[in-house]
Amino acid sequence: MTELLIPAAQNAVSRPVGRRAFMVGLSATGLLALPACSSIGGFGLADAIRRMLTLSSERAFARLTADGGFWDQQVAQIGLANLLGTRGDILSNILTSSLFKSRLNGAFADIAIEGAYRAAPIVADAVRVIGFQNAVDLVRGGPTAATSFLRQEMGGQLLEAMVPELADAMRVAQDPLVGQALSALTGVNVSQVANTFGARVNDTIWNEIGREEAAIRANPRSTNDPLIIGTFGTGF
């Protein structure tokens, strides 16, 4: 897959762009437009949390949308048999060789990456608008406290946004093996498969953002951000 649709801030569809262009855009503008600062003065703990979640999200999505990144880290663990089911020996007949299995899995990895593209601006918008009134608790919290809070506040927004897109991607997937698998599995419910697949992708996205948050908390100075360093590097 060489092109994906990147939604704008209000979930409207933007122009198709390639993966490299998407990542260049993140580097140039960031997921959020936050004010620069040369000192901690004038910025509160909520600002520091937003900056940390912004950076955590940028790093997570950069890894998940890299060529091979999502597949190498997560998709292999999902298991296509668990998603598509087994109608007799149909799935086994389709996946008669490691080459076929590799190609089919690769196609599903691209579909998962499309879900990650879909999710990125939704997370960015949420970080911007969600209030962090209990900022002190989040700063003092565990390694993934801010990510967990954001996920709870967002509820099922990511999954609701991704599932229709994933179902459409499965229906029109260019790789013939995907079409072959889905058409051969008589009675397969593509929407149900997309919902299951989307739930796994959703969990993966949040796990990866949380992983990045934990890394930032462990070494705030690696961010070179004075606000993050001042807030999370002082044992507040």
Q: Which key terms come to mind for this protein?
A:
single chain; 236 residues; mainly alpha; two-stranded antiparallel ribbon; 12 helices
Overview of the structural elements:
Helix content is 68%, strand content 4%. With 236 residues, the protein is mainly alpha-helical. The protein has one domain (4-232). A hairpin with a 5-residue loop joins β1 (4-7) and β2. The termini are far apart. This is DUF4197 family protein. Keywords: Membrane, Transmembrane, Transmembrane helix. The chain crosses the membrane at residues 21-46.
Provide the fold topology:
Blueprint: E1 4-7, E2 13-17, H1 19-29, H2 45-64, H3 69-78, H4 80-84, H5 90-94, H6 98-129, H7 135-140, H8 145-154, H9 157-172, H10 176-184, H11 190-218, H12 226-232
Antiparallel strand pairs: 1-2
Helix pairs in contact: 2-6, 2-11, 2-12, 3-6, 6-9, 6-11, 8-11, 9-11
Pfam family, one: DUF4197
Keywords: Membrane, Transmembrane, Transmembrane helix
Organism: Allopontixanthobacter confluentis
